[in-house]
Specification:
CATH class of the largest domain: Alpha Beta
Order of helices and strands: HHHHHEHEHEHEEHEEHEEE
Strand order of the largest sheet: 6-2-1-7-8-10-9
Number of strands: 10
CATH topology of the largest domain: Rossmann fold
Shape: globular
Number of domains: 2
Radius of gyration: 19 Å
Structural class: alpha/beta
Number of helices: 10
Helix content: 40-55%
CATH superfamily of the largest domain: Vaccinia Virus protein VP39
CATH architecture of the largest domain: 3-Layer(aba) Sandwich
Length: 272
């Protein structure tokens, strides 16, 4: 187990990860990191954070496995359905006025939110003129997202979310079931570009009309939250929209003055 007084070992491990692989977890929430690294120590059987540091420095082929513990890979299709209902009702009428659209899903994990937005935009008649950028720091997650293949037994919950989110058809219209898995339609995949990007180290990704970055900031310390929000702000066009997770807010951010709160309960903001 990781004891609270092992601060030096933790700092050395995170420094080793940054200098060896350029992944910066040094300003992530310490409590969350400690929980995940406790699981990693048990998984690798290395006994301590110093043992993990040895793996980082001397066994690069194991780093992607460690990255699985350091990044959060929890997502659902149409997670928090009211968020997607608000996008349909409040944001889509604005987006419909643009001749072309770019949308950025920052911290896309294994892709569920990107596909959710693709379905929503298809049903609103906007997908044909939209490019969705879906980014994450975990290459394994990005490969899974690009494949668009998910366990079929998750789709009962996905379908319920879809209907609660204001879905206009049946979710089964968008995937093919085979051998216990579901594969999303190629038409959805054609509108999504998956790419590596870190809110901790990289700058604005592209100029977009909508950024959806949900349940990412909660894993950052305050200074990194402000850096990330600055990157998101710089990526938004004038009057562009930002969606956060229900436990996230701009209220105490250094960039709060750059936004107006559009849908308070669903954490949807508009850049001023």
């Amino acid at each position: 187990m990781i004891a609270p007084d092992e601060d030096l070992e933790l700092r050395l491990l995170l420094d080793a990860i940054y200098h060896r692989y350029q992944y910066d977890f040094r300003s992530y929430s310490e409590a969350s990191l400690r929980r995940r690294l406790t699981a990693a120590v048990l998984h690798f059987g290395c006994g301590s954070l110093s043992g993990l540091q040895g793996i980082v420095l001397h066994e690069p082929e194991q780093f992607n496995e460690l990255l699985r513990f350091l990044t959060v890979q929890v997502s659902d299709l149409f997670r928090d359905p009211s968020y997607f209902r608000s996008l349909r009702a409040v944001v889509v009428p604005y987006l419909a006025t643009y001749p072309s659209l770019k949308v950025w899903v920052a911290g896309c994990s294994t892709g569920e939110e990107a596909y959710s937005l693709a379905i929503l935009l298809h049903e609103e008649g906007l997908l044909d003129r939209t490019l969705i950028y879906a980014t994450d720091i975990n290459p394994r997650s990005l490969r899974a997202a690009e494949d668009g293949v998910y366990e079929l037994d998750r789709f009962a919950r996905f379908s319920q979310n879809y209907l609660e989110a204001g879905g206009r058809a049946s979710l089964s219209n968008y995937y093919t079931a085979q051998y216990g898995s579901a594969v999303f339609d190629r038409r959805l995949k054609a509108s999504i570009l998956f790419s590596d990007h870190s809110l901790a180290t990289d700058n604005a990704f592209a100029e977009v009309e909508l950024v959806s970055c949900r349940n990412v900031l909660i894993y950052f310390e305050k200074a990194l939250q402000d850096r990330a929000i600055g990157v998101l702000r710089d990526s938004l066009c004038r009057k562009g929209f930002l969606g956060l997770g229900i436990k996230e807010t701009l209220r105490f951010s250094a960039h709060a003055a750059a936004f107006t709160e559009l849908v308070q309960q669903d954490r949807i903001y508009q850049r001023l």
